[in-house]
Amino acid sequence: MKTILTGIRANSELTLGNYLGALLPMVRLANEHSSKMNVNIFVPDLHSIISDVDGNLRSNTIRTLKYYLAAGLEINNNVHIYRQSYVPAHSELCWILNCVATMGEMGRMTQYKEKSEGKASCNVGIFDYPVLMAADILLYSAEYIPLGEDQFQHIELARNLAIRFNNRFGDIFVVPESTVQQIKFMGVEQGIRIRDLLNPDKKMSKSTKAENSKIMLDDTPEKATKKIMSATTDSLGKVRFDMWAQPGISNLLVIESLVTNTPLADVTARWAGETRYGDLKKQVAASVSVMLADFQEKLAGISDEVVLKLLDEGEAYANKVANVKLLEVQKAFGLR
Ligand code: ATP
Ligand code: MG
Question: Which of 45, 48, 66, 129 is most buried by a 10 A CB count?
Answer without folding.
Answer: 129
